[in-house]
Amino acid sequence: MKLEGKIALVTGGSRGIGFATCKKLASEGATIIITDICDEEKAAPAIKELEEMGAKAKFYKSDVSNFESAQETVNAVIKDFGGLDILVNNAGIVRDMLMIKMTEADFDAVINVNLKGTYNMMKATYKHFMKQRSGRIISLASVVGIMGNAGQANYSASKAGIIGLTKTVAKELGGRNVTVNAIAPGYIATDMTDKLSDKAKEVMSSGIPMKRAGSPEDVANAICFLASDDASYITGEVLRVDGGMAM
């Protein structure tokens, strides 16, 4: 297995793309740490399923948008498990609407979780990975961070920021054998997109060369690749998982 003996922390890992990622990394032998803002009871089914797969898994309640919470969680994980090898910055929120209706609070909330949360987790793990002289950081960006999207000024800005952050930290940590990459999903079928009307789904799919939505597993497979030794000479990249949507 490609990740045997590795310890992976996935933010927002209790559902959707995050949980698909946890299962994929676990199938390759990784110990899984799920962090989320939800209570332990809501994350319990995810932990149970991972344990039933034969994986070691633990949940930590944490708010990525809070600098101290992120640092305390990372410190606890390293203390409890003796280290950390893989960080997947998956936690994110949306507050979609045209800018004319978007409030300052709507903008700040998305930036604080998506972009500041990614910074907080990178900052919290930075010294550990640097001293360890190894590590993998994979952050969830989005194709809208590359091409923009009406009604998503806050979300697009947060994801574009993650791309810039990824490239910068990749340059800083490259000499320490730490790779830093981003995944840019397109239209992925999740609980969030399930709320869209059939007409909206049809319109979105029609703009994709592959004519279908992606699955959380499609994204998880790409994350697992970047977390493995197969991607040991890849850093500072933004890998689109979008069926050709942003070509």
Automatic annotation (TrEMBL):
One of its GO terms (biological process) is steroid metabolic process. Residues 6-191 form the Ketoreductase domain. PANTHER family: 3-OXOACYL-(ACYL-CARRIER-PROTEIN) REDUCTASE, 3-OXOACYL-[ACYL-CARRIER-PROTEIN] REDUCTASE FABG. It catalyses: a (3R)-hydroxyacyl-[ACP] + NADP(+) = a 3-oxoacyl-[ACP] + NADPH + H(+). Belongs to the short-chain dehydrogenases/reductases (SDR) family. Pathway: Lipid metabolism; fatty acid biosynthesis. Homotetramer. GO terms for molecular function: 3-oxoacyl-[acyl-carrier-protein] reductase (NADPH) activity; NAD binding. This is 3-oxoacyl-[acyl-carrier-protein] reductase. Its EC number is 1.1.1.100. The active site is at Y155. It holds the Pfam family adh_short_C2. It comes from Ruminococcus bovis. Gene3D superfamilies: NAD(P)-binding Rossmann-like Domain. InterPro entries: 3oxo_ACP_reduc, KR_dom, NAD(P)-bd_dom_sf, Sc_DH/Rdtase_CS, SDR, SDR_fam.
